Structure formats: C-alpha cells, structure tokens
Amino acid sequence: MYLVELNGSAMVAVKLRGPTHLQKTEVLLLLLAVTASSLRSGAMALSVPARRLSTKLFPSLLLPASSTSSSSSTISQSTDTSSWFLSQFGSASFLRPYSTNSTADQMNLIKLLRERTSAPIKDVKAALVLSNWDIEEAQKELRKKGKVMASKKSSRTAAEGLLALAQSSTKTALIELNCETDFVARNDIFQHLALSLAKKALLVDNSSQHVSGAFHVGPESLEEMTLNLEHPKISGETTVHNAITEVAAMMGENVKLRRGYVMPASSQGLISTYLHTSPQPGLGRIAGILSLEVDDGKTQVDALQRVGSELAMHVVAAKPLFLTKELVSSDALENEREILKSQAEASGKSQMAIDKMVEGRLRKYFEEVVLMEQKFIMNDAMNVKAVLDNLSKEVGSSVRAVNFLRMEVGEGIARQEADASEPVAQAA
C-alpha cells in the first residue's frame, strides 16, 4: 500500500495486488501516473494489479510530449516525469509506503474511507482494524454491516424525504423517497438517488393500473430494475432495491421508496410542473403537475407554458381535490350535503330556507375543492375556468385542463399508511 499526498491536501491510497518484479524507481514512477489518473477520475483510493504495472500505464496525456516516444524511453526519463508530476501537483507532494504502525497513516485511511462511504467514524475505524487496515476489505465490511442495520431499521417510521420529478417528451414521472429526518433529505447522496429513481420511473410500462389519468408506480415496479448511480461516493451498476438499501446503510436511517406516479402528455398539449421548497432542480417537498390539451397542435407554446406553470403553482397552493364539479365523487358530495344540512337545520328556519342554505354552501364547497371553480391564486377576480377561457382566446384555440396531480412529502403517513399511495389526481 502506498499513500500519496498532493499539495498537502488531496490524499490518495494506491494498493498493489500481487508480486511485482519492477525496479523500485519504476514502481514509484508508475504509481505517480496511476495516482494522477485516479485524481482525474475523481477516485480517492485505487487498487492496481501488480501485473498491470508496466510502462504502458503512462498515457500520453499525463506526460510531456517529449517523454512518450517509446516505452523504454519513458522509464529512462524519470527526471522529466517527476518534474511534470511536481509541476502539476506541487513540490509539497510525496509518495511513501503505508505503515500500520503510523498513527498518521491510520488517520489518513480513516479519512479516505469516511469520504468514500459517509459512514460514522467509529464504524470506519472498526472496519479498518478488523480488515488489518486494508481499505478495500474495510469498505466491504462496512457495506455488509450497513445492510444488516438497514434491515433492522426498515420498520421505523420514515415521514421525511423528497419528491423527485423527471420528464420526457411524452410523460412526467414523480416519486416520493422517504427518510426519517430532514438532515438526510438534505444529503446529496439521498438527493442523487431520488433523481435517479424518478428517471427510472419514466421507463415503467404504461400498462400498469391507471388512476384518474396518472398511472401508479409502486416500489415493486422499480426495485428489480437496473440502476447505475454515477455519484463519487456511490457508483456502479446495481438494482433499485440494493441501491436504496446501500443508501439507507450509509445514512443510518430507514430509507424507502414510498410511491410514484407517471402522467402521460396529451398528443396535442403539454405538462406543466411546479416544485415547492426545492433544494435543487427536480426536487421538492410539494409538487403540482397539470396536463393541458389544445385543439390546434400549432398553438403558441410560450403562452401555454406560461399559464401552465402558473396553474401548476396554483395546484400546490390551493390543494384542489377534483378537476370539475362533475368529477366530485358521489360519496364526498353526499357526505358534505349531510353536514351542511345538519348545520342549516340548527338555525330553525323553514325547509325552503334550509334547502337554499345547503345549495349556497355547496357552491362554496365546490369553490374550495374543485380546480376549475377555485379562485385563481394569481388573480382572485377570476376562477381557473376563466383563466383557461382567456388563454383559449389568446392562442386562438380551445385549451382544456385534462389531468392534475398534487403530492406532498409524508402526507397520510401519520393517519393511515395503507391509503398513503393515493394522491389527488383527476381527469376529464
């Protein structure tokens, strides 16, 4: 094992696997090249088979042009190679064999493994001690321990997290990835995983069960799909299930994919989205999605996008439950009617007056829960239906809202977990 420090800051561990017959000078020079390569690729530790240590490891992009004429001349020009390396990484750079007897080296390996895995320092040190300070074996040990701990924590309530959104030319996907604390939700690894899962949801077959225009994507639809996480601290090809388990192990919390929905776009229209409390593009705690359809496919897209974005924001703020009055469920309508009737009868007025009171309050109810009847949040002098009527006049073609979806992180978890996968979504 060799440790290389560059400019007193960047530390790289390079491990040689197997016997080598190269001269000491050659090994040092080759390690410099390997180290430089690992830094360019973002790696913090590297394990290299000794049989691969040859002059061929010197790519031309790492050496001066005059040093790459042949393999033999490359080794002989150690001064040029060393000078180039020092010019790239500074005179404060050094390379030396790693020693388990050196406290400084042990601390450096702890730092490296901590940066690679984000595991607690006490677990990192324990894994290194158990593996005799072999960083690769220690990382494997941490993964094994993490999976066991993740399994034990899987029953704990996870009501925090993020919504992640991904779009293609034909549909929009929205997933909810949960964790236990807001601290983990702010972690870049957790956020990277959420965005990756949203992109995977776009690939789910549309033959899944449809729910009012948006089809449901449950965890079981994604967990066996292949996922390639391109993140400095968690990369490589794995399954969705294993990726979630590994992130849960790294975070030390219960992490789970709770639900997802995909909304297909109309052949003549577009889907507008809005994410509230967004830490970065594509992520948020509350999401609003609205699908608009237009009769003329050549209509001005800019006008549709402008109004669509405003209405998606309206969906988040106004919390509609239904798209139109006709789509209000009979159960919800009858339940509301009974409540209003009971309240009106308490006034002691005549039956005719009571009936008028109930109908008036029902209109108020529609204005509260029906998207098309709600007062527009950007201009409460008109309702959403009037906004679309004005848009139709502006673009010269009839524009309709055909679907909408509103989701919020953690909604329903404390009340009834079984019904938590049902968001508000209605279609004409």
Automatic annotation (TrEMBL):
It comes from the Eukaryota. The keyword Transit peptide applies. InterPro entries: EF-Ts_dimer_sf (IPR036402), Transl_elong_EFTs/EF1B (IPR001816), Transl_elong_EFTs/EF1B_dimer (IPR014039), Transl_elong_Ts_CS (IPR018101), UBA-like_sf (IPR009060). PROSITE patterns: EF_TS_2 (PS01127). The keyword Protein biosynthesis applies. Pfam families: EF_TS. Belongs to the EF-Ts family. HAMAP family: EF_Ts (MF_00050). Associates with the EF-Tu.GDP complex and induces the exchange of GDP to GTP. It remains bound to the aminoacyl-tRNA.EF-Tu.GTP complex up to the GTP hydrolysis stage on the ribosome. This is Elongation factor Ts, mitochondrial. The gene is EFTS.
